[in-house]
Write a structure and sequence with these properties.
This protein has one domain: Alpha-Beta Complex (Rubredoxin-like), CATH 3.90.820.10. Helices cover 24% and strands 33% of the residues. The protein contains 2 helices and 3 strands; from the N terminus they run E-E-E-H-H. The longest helix is centred in the middle third of the chain and has 11 residues. The radius of gyration is 13 Å and the shape is flat. This is MbtH family protein. InterPro entries: MbtH-like_dom, MbtH-like_sf, MLP_fam. It comes from Lysobacter yangpyeongensis.
């Protein structure tokens, strides 16, 4: 796949931590697309709306305040 430098994809890992990744590049191990693609600013705004609890999922589950699965 060819890089698309102006587009990014929102990615999430098993701990429900979010990041952005250049569109068209192979995702790093342990990360999957959450389906949102846009400019850097759009992706960061989307993350801001999704990632409201910065604690890793395992920590949230440990204290009993987390959903059991990531929403896709």
């Amino acid at each position: 796949m060819q890089d698309t430098p102006d587009l990014y994809v929102v990615v999430v890992n098993d701990e429900l931590q979010y990041s952005i990744w250049p569109a068209g590049r192979e995702l790093p191990g342990g990360w999957r697309s959450d389906g949102f693609v846009g400019s850097r600013a759009q992706c960061l705004a989307a993350i801001g709306n999704r990632w409201t609890d910065m604690r890793p999922l395992s920590v949230r589950q440990h204290v009993g305040s987390a959903p059991t699965q990531a929403s896709e």
